[in-house]
TrEMBL record:
Compartment list: Cytoplasm; Membrane
GO biological process, one term: actin filament organization
Keyword vocabulary terms for this entry: Apoptosis, Cytoplasm, Membrane, Phagocytosis, Phosphoprotein, SH3-binding
GO cellular component, as recorded: cytoplasm; guanyl-nucleotide exchange factor complex; plasma membrane
Name used for this protein in its record: Engulfment and cell motility 1
Organism of derivation: Amphiprion percula
Gene3D superfamilies in the cross-refs: 6.10.250.810, Leucine-rich Repeat Variant, Pleckstrin-homology domain (PH domain)/Phosphotyrosine-binding domain (PTB), SH3 Domains
Source domain of life: Eukaryota
Length: 726
């Protein structure tokens, strides 16, 4: 007879004694279980003891997490979180360097556990650590020359413990003094600093800036871009990532009036070229976190354009009107005529003629064209940049379109305004960066005026596409749709330079776009007749059942999942698979990643499918709600799912990749009789349905399918034509 569900069989260790095998009743209070364990080893004062998971995490067992104890778990009897906190609080104040170092090392490890962290913080432990950073380490700096490794370790463990404690979100960042900020900043500003100390110092500064506007001002006074730049010129990608994260944080929190000033400083310090040569073109592959930080920097840089994008042109502003005069001068090689040259009416007529050739909507006063926001003055800025920096291309486009008489001229002014608006939409100018996006484009880091150069390439593309389509003014919106598609398809290929982007666009001519559209239409089976739609509807349930069976078969094969603690990856694994009768989930821990399927009998834990209440995904999962390092959560959030069973108990998963995530969430939903909604299911449905439709319609090629079924013919007058083959 199997043991009751509330009874868990575990082994409990105690230093210097043989481990005990014990059955724990999960209905009993934890204090009663600890008392029973202590009495077994004749230990008094059971309230001074606690149970820990005996693995690398050493997390304490509490009433909240006790349901995570599984059959076969190994626990350790140890001092209570309060007692451990008191002991470490005393030990880190030791006068012995070796004792202090060992204590700080233990503190850094223990601080990962929120139960211990709460007790240590209650003892004012954060204040003690900040005091040690501010002044306590000063006396050891004199010994730094002869004890440099020891000093580096001492400071590293101190800062690690501080970061771990603050990660739990128990203490506000606003509580720290200027002296502490100055000390952390000094570690970043030093040219030669221990890597671990530098990494933690950068992480602390980033958190300070992001979590407090007041601390932003204090940090900004202590850290300059020039002091951060050298950290990007090394080869340690983690240090580079944290450095860019600090720059992004300072950029993000800076008041609007200071962002342009900061961008100017970044340009002066050649941040872009340093990132390009030392990060993007480095032989070391860019990891997800670095890709995210580069994406954030890209977004924040483009957001500097928002002010011009949302600024209307003042038709009465002479300085702004002079820009339009400059466009006219460059295009038609004319100088500003003196006031006495000809009549006013003649000059107006000449201006109107030239503004029409330039392609403005309002020929009399083109300034009115720039009152639309977006793109506002940003469009005029782009046009002037194109005219000055790509003068030959600008003159060629204007003149070849102004001399046409066949109504196929491409209006440069109107096109530039609409194109600027489109590029702002594509690059999402003015929007805050997404927390989970890694979509940075290397080509935007290859030029100081990347947006303007991007515009110059695209306006030439627009003119080329206009000619290929033989468009007229009535086709303007159609041309813009084709150009958007060309740009989006080229960007999807992630070109490494603007020249590469330009060559990709050359291959995406209007003819090529038509071919791609035709191919996609064929693949999508774009048949809208009623018989075809009815056939699709009839086939869909069969295809969905096929997908469901495939998902359940994959669950029966099982998957190896990596164990992840609340904030760090651990090199431990567990395996989960569905029984062949689809009634039980078998799961259990593994010592290492398996090479094939793991048999059911080696998986010690079971969860009946009938007990499953719901499948929860993403940020709603309990293991994603824990406060911890957001950087890891960004990587795993989209792969997280949990199974809710019994009374608020969960089996938590982190899928190894997106494919496995879709397979498992689909399979579990299928077991619960719910709809399979993953992207993978939609893709499979489209592919299989398209293939099945093509197979069934093979004999109907080049035959027009009528909207209504043909009429049934009348019966013949006689059946003399029927004969027996035998």
């Amino acid at each position: 007879m199997p043991p009751p569900a509330d009874i868990v069989k575990v082994a409990i260790e105690w230093p210097g004694a043989f481990p005990k095998l014990m059955e724990i009743d999960q209905k009993k209070p934890l204090s009663a279980i600890i008392k029973e364990v202590c009495e077994g080893w004749s230990l008094g004062n059971h309230e001074n003891f606690a149970l820990q998971i005996a693995d690398a995490t050493n997390f304490y067992i509490t009433e909240k997490n006790r349901n995570d104890i599984k059959n076969g778990s190994i626990l350790r009897l140890t001092t209570s979180p309060y007692q451990t906190a008191v002991q470490l609080h005393e030990r880190i104040q030791s006068s012995s360097m070796d004792a202090k170092l060992e204590a700080l090392k233990d503190l850094a490890n223990a601080s990962r556990d929120i139960t211990f962290a709460q007790e240590f913080i209650n003892l004012d432990g954060i204040s003690l650590l900040t005091q040690m950073v501010e002044s306590g380490t000063e006396r050891y700096q004199k010994l730094q020359k002869i004890m440099k490794p020891c000093f580096g370790d001492l400071l590293s463990f101190t800062l690690t413990a501080f970061v771990e404690l603050m990660d739990h979100g128990i203490v506000s960042w606003d509580t720290f003094s200027v002296a502490f900020i100055k000390k952390i900043a000094s570690y970043v500003n030093k040219s030669a600093m221990d890597t671990a100390v530098l990494q933690r110092s950068l992480a602390i500064l980033e958190s300070m800036v992001l979590n407090s506007q007041d601390l932003y001002h204090k940090v900004a006074q202590e850290i300059t871009i020039g002091q951060l730049i050298p950290h990007l010129q090394g080869t340690d990608q983690d240090i580079q990532t944290y450095t860019i994260a600090v720059i992004n944080a300072l950029f993000l929190k800076a008041p609007e009036e200071k962002r342009q000033e900061m961008a100017h400083i970044l340009a002066q310090k050649q941040l872009r070229s340093i990132i390009l040569s030392n990060v993007i073109r480095s032989p070391i592959p860019i990891n997800d976190e670095m890709a995210h930080q580069l994406y954030v920097l890209q977004v924040l840089t483009f957001n500097l354009l928002e002010d011009r994008m949302m600024t209307k042109m003042d038709p009465q502003d002479q300085a702004q009107r002079d820009i339009i005069f400059e466009l006219r001068r460059i295009a038609f090689d004319v100088e500003c005529e003196p006031n006495n040259s000809g009549s006013i009416e003649k000059r107006k007529s000449m201006y109107t003629r030239d503004y029409k050739k330039l392609g403005f909507i309002n020929h009399v006063n083109p300034a009115v064209d720039f009152t639309q926001i977006p793109p506002g003055m940003l469009a005029l800025d782009n046009m002037l940049y194109f005219a000055k920096h790509h003068q030959d291309a600008y003159i060629r486009i204007v003149l070849e379109n102004s001399s046409r008489e066949d109504k196929h001229e491409c209006p440069f002014g109107r096109s530039s305004i609409e194109l600027t608006k489109m590029l702002c939409e594509i690059l999402k100018v003015g929007e805050l960066p997404s927390e989970n996006c890694h979509d940075f484009h290397p080509m935007f880091f290859t030029h100081d005026r990347s947006f303007e150069e991007f515009f110059c390439i695209c306006i030439q593309l627009l003119n080329k596409t206009w000619k290929e389509m033989r468009a007229t003014s009535e086709d303007f919106n159609k041309v813009m749709q084709v150009v958007r598609e060309q740009i989006m398809r080229a960007l999807t290929l992630k070109p490494n330079s603007l020249d590469q982007f330009k060559s990709r666009l050359q291959n995406l001519s209007y003819t090529e776009i038509l071919k791609i559209r035709q191919s996609e239409r064929m693949n999508q089976e774009d048949f809208q007749s009623r018989p075809i739609l009815e056939l699709r509807e009839k086939i869909q349930p069969e295809i969905m059942e096929l997908i469901k069976q495939q998902r359940l078969n994959r669950l029966c094969e099982g998957t190896c999942f990596r164990k992840i603690s609340s904030r760090r990856r651990q090199d431990k694994f567990w395996y989960c698979r569905l029984s062949p009768n689809h009634k039980v989930l078998h799961y259990g821990d593994l010592e290492e990643s398996p090479q094939g399927e793991v048999p059911h009998d080696s998986l010690q834990d079971k969860l009946p499918v009938a007990d499953i209440k719901a499948v929860i995904t993403g940020k709603d999962c309990p293991h994603m709600k824990e406060k911890g390092a957001l950087k890891q959560n960004k990587e795993v959030l989209e792969l997280a799912f949990s199974v809710l069973y019994e009374s608020d108990e969960y089996l938590n998963f982190i899928a190894p990749d997106k494919h496995e995530y879709c397979v498992w969430t689909d399979g579990l939903n299928a077991l619960l009789g719910k709809e399979m909604t993953s992207d993978y299911t939609k893709s499979d449905m489209d592919t299989l349905l398209s293939m099945e439709m093509k197979l069934r319609l093979l004999d109907l090629e080049n035959i027009q399918i009528p909207e209504a079924p043909p009429p049934i013919p009348k019966e013949p007058s006689n059946y003399d034509f029927v004969y027996d083959c035998n």
